Structure formats: C-alpha cells, structure tokens
Amino acid sequence: MEPAAPIVKFTSLKKRYGTGPLILDDINLAAAPGDFISLIGPSGCGKSTILKLVSGLSPGSEGGLDVLGTTPKLARDRQAFIFQDATLLPWLTAQRNVELPLRLRGMAAAARAAKAQEMLALVGLDAARDYYPRQLSGGMKMRVSIARALTLSPQLLLLDEPFGALDEMTRNRLNEELLALRERSRFTALFVTHSVSEAVFLSNRVLVMAANPGRFQAEVKVEFPYPRTPALRARPEFQAKVNQVSQLLHQVEEVVSA
Amino acid sequence: MKKIPPLWLWVLPAVSGVLFVALWYGVRAGSGLQSWILPTPVEIFAAAWQERARLLTAAGNTAVGALVGFLLAGTLGFATSLLLGVSRSLRAGLYPWLLVLQMTPVIVLTPIIMLWAGPGLPGIVTVTWLISFFPIVANMTQGLLSTDMNHVALFRMANASRLQEMLLLRVPSAMPYYLAGLRIAATLAPIGAIFGEYMVGNSSGGTGGLGFLVYSYNTQIKIPALFATALTSCLLGFIFVAAVSGLNRAVLHKWHDSFERNDH
After folding, report:
1. Is A86:A141 a contact under the CB 8 Å cutoff?
2. Contact assignment for B150 to A100 by CB distance below 8 Å
3. pLDDT score for B263
4. Which residues of A55-68 are buried (b: 16+ CB within 10 A; e: fewer)?
5. Do A91 and B264 touch (CB under 8 A)?
6. Quick check: B194 and B231 in contact, CB under 8 A?
7. DSSP label at residue B87
8. How far is CA A209 from the centre of its chain?
9. Is B253 on the interface with A (CB under 8 A)?
10. What residues of chain B lie within 8 A of the CB of A153, using their CB?
11. Cβ of B261 under 8 Å from any chain A Cβ?
12. Which of B255, B258, B259, B262 to mutate to test the interface with A (most CBs of A within 10 A)?
C-alpha cells in the first residue's frame, strides 16, 4: 500500500526576514495523517515560525512547503490555529466566540448557534456559554479557544504553546482532553511547547530543535498507543522518554551557551 | 491601589468644597473687595434665582447647539476614523491636515465661520463641531490601529475579508477608544457652543444662549449674574458628560476590564 500523502511537507525550507540572518535552515519534515508532532527547543529556535509558515501568515524564503496537498494559504480553510493566549474576543460571549469562524463563513445564525453549543458541550462548558471571557478562568478560556478551533473540523491543528500560561494541574487536564478530542476528530497536530513531559504525553513524534539558525536536531518517536490515560505519566517507560528528550534538549542548549 | 470606602467618595469632595467656600468668604472679608468684583456664593445663587427664566431659556438654546454639534462630531468623527483606519495612504494624506485644523485656534476661526455660515444655529453648530471633532478622530483612529495582533492573525487565518475584519474586529475593539474620545468631546461641546454664541452676540433672533448672556451681563456689569451663568454652563457640561458616561457604561460594562468587579 502507498503511504498516505503527507499533511505537511517541508522540503529543505529556509526562512529569513528580509536580508536578516537565517531564522530556519534546511527544514525537512513530512507529517503523516494522524501524527501528533511536538516541536521543542530553546527560545528563539523558530518553533513558532514553523507554525506561521504552515498557516500562511508568513512565507518561506527558499525550499518547498506543501500543506494538505496545496499551498499554506489555500489550505487555510482546513486548518486551525490555537494561540498561546486564548485570543477570545472580549466583547463576545463564549458561545459567540465559538461561532466566530462559522460567522466569518456566512453560516446562518441558528445553525451556527447549534454548532457552537455542541462544541462547548464537548469541552465541558455548556453551562458557561453566556459568559464573557473576563468571567472565565485561564483553563476555561483555553477550552473555548479549542472549541472555536474545532468548529470547522480542521484536518490540521496548529498549537503555539497553548497551555504555557496555565498551572500544571490544569495543563495536565487539558492535555488529556485534547487527546480525547483527537480520538473523536482525528486531526493531525503540530504542537509547540516548552514542556518535555507535555510533549511526550501528547505526541507520537517529538522534534528537538536547535537555535541560530533554527533547525531540527533530533527526532524522538513516542510509541505508546493511543488513547493514552493519565496513568501513563507514572510509568517508568514514560519517565525514560522524558529523560531522553530532556537530555537532547540539554545538549542543544549547551551548544548555544558555549 | 487601596480602595476608598464609598461613603468617603461623597464626604471628601464635600469637605474640600466647604473649605473652598470658607476660603472664598475669607478672601472677600479680608480684601474688602466689592460684590461686583467678587460676589459671595449666596449672592451668586440669589442672582441665579432672579435671572432663572433667562438662564433656563439660554441654557436650552445652548444645549441645542451643543448637542447638534456634538452629534455631528460623533458621527462624522466615527466615519472619518474608519476611512483613516482602512487606508495607510488616506491616513498619511489627511491626518496632517486634521492636525492643522486642530492647531488653528477656534478663536481665530469663529469669526470666519460666522461670516460663512451666518450668525444663527448653523454657525454655532459648526464651531461646536470643530472643537469636538478632533479628539474623537484621534482616539478612534488610534483604537482602530491598536487591535491585538493575535486577533488579526485569527481573522486572517479564517480568511476573513477586509470588511469583516473592520466590522467584526477593529470597530468593536476600538469602542473604548471611541467612547473616550466622545467623553472629551462632551466636555468641549458646550464650551464650543457658548463661545460661538459669545462671538455672535444677540443677532440670532433676540433669545441667544449662555454665550450671549455672558456678553450681556458683562457689559451690564452684572457680575453675580455672570457667575451664575458660569454655574449654569458648568451644569450643562456635567449633563453632557453624564450622558456619555451612561453610554460608555451601556456599551462596555459587560465585557470591558474597566468595569471589572472584584467580587468574583
């Protein structure tokens, strides 16, 4: 059987802003359908830039990038972006925020309300649908943001340190919820994070990046089967993976400081 | 910041007000100034009561001019800001001229406006518009350009049109700025109308507004009545500001952080 066409394919991609220094050098990556890939590395290694390239917010300088079989911009309606902060519109209620992508597509009010309520129920927030963002906790805001991203059933989900500002308990909970949503919605994910254990828990592939210029240094495959449960975190194999990634990260960071 | 208990928000201004009045009487008694140079508060209130019919009619006339000019500034300011917010070239081309308009003293422009628009309501409205327009445009334009970059990225990612980005993102996020501009305009509009009337004198049909009363009482050396006119103008200004504060509250209180309560 032919392997399925990659969801995201980087071919020797380079990125610089104007005539500035190289931000990303020789990026090669093929994300298969269903992959959950974490990008981890020191600050300034270009992790977030990779997501910007895939979403078409910023063009590559050299090399190739295909997303969902086409250009990043043309693939936009089949991908969704989850930002570091929840980026909810403060003047809209939770439900109206979730409706936003549907509204931008011109869907009728009744249909989008029904869809948004379904999505909010999925992230456990049906009771909070009329709340404004400032009335929600950080974890709840992020759930609304996830619900909003999933309303259009994207094939590709880009996540830029979405749980970085949350406390560890909330972060773990949301990690588990994200995997449950993945079981249901079958999206492919590119996930930028600073947390090694989060990367290992979520992903089947962890890419360790180095900086100056940003590049892929090593890949660690994480072969624990999905669905994964919180119990996984307590297992020695999990700890071993975390240690392995931490060590790789350490080496990369030592090169930087040397 | 430490919170001030609600009762003190009334008590403290009352205390400073009483001290101020005491100082007022002190200066009057100590300096031996005449009533027609420094009337006491009681004399001012007496003059206000005596002149109440003229003051009320005048305040009504001024309120009409101020309100029409203010509403014109509010709507035209909103529309102009949209234009400036949409296009970098329009902004570059027009903003310096808006500044020039603002920098030219109203006192210089008013006689010219009266010459062109005539000395009645149209001229007064134009002066009012002129003085309240710029703060609205400056604030609202700033607001349209201060949209959260992540929100813009969100809209771009969703393939939103420029129109959608303007109406569903930039305009709502600029509302606090627009309302701040309106609030400044609300303090200026009555001043603009009164100044316009002052320059026009009595030629608008014999009634005139507060500005005409200033002119009239001043030439008649009715100084307590002049103070009473100042008091009335101040009250009119307060009504304008209170109305905009009400609007501000109605638009923002549900979602904006400036209405954040500490009790949840």
Report:
1. yes
2. no
3. 43
4. bbbbebeebebbbb
5. no
6. no
7. -
8. 16
9. no
10. none
11. no
12. B255
> CB distance from B263 to chain A under 8 Å?
no
The pLDDT tens digits for A57-112 are 999 999 999 999 999 999 999 999 999 999 999 999 999 999 999 999 999 999 99
pLDDT band at B102; cut points 50, 70, 90: confident
Which of A169, A124, A116, A127 lies closest to A143 in space, CA to CA?
A: A124
Chain A touched by B262 (CB under 8 Å)? no
A47/A211 Cα distance (integer angstroms): 10
For chain A, list residues whose CB is within 8 angstroms of any CB belonging to chain B.
55-57, 76-77, 79-81, 83, 85, 87, 89-92, 100-101, 103-105, 132-135
Q: What is the mean pLDDT of residues B73-93?
A: 94
Which pair of structure tokens corresponds to residue A223? 């072969």
Closest CA to A95 of A155, A154, A144, A28: A144
ipTM of this complex > 0.85?
yes
Q: What is the pLDDT of residues B124-183, one digit of tens each?
A: 999 999 999 999 999 999 999 999 999 999 999 999 999 999 999 999 999 999 999 999
The C-alpha R_g of chain A, in whole angstroms, comes to 18
* Positions of chain A with pLDDT lower than 50, given as ranges: 1
Pairing relationship of beta strands A188-192 and A22-31 according to DSSP bridges: unpaired
Length of chain B: 264
> Taking CB atoms and an 8 Å limit, are A83 and B256 in contact across chains?
no
Cβ of A89 within 8 Å of Cβ of B173? The answer is: yes
pTM metric for this prediction: 0.87
- Tokens 């003051």 identify what position? B55
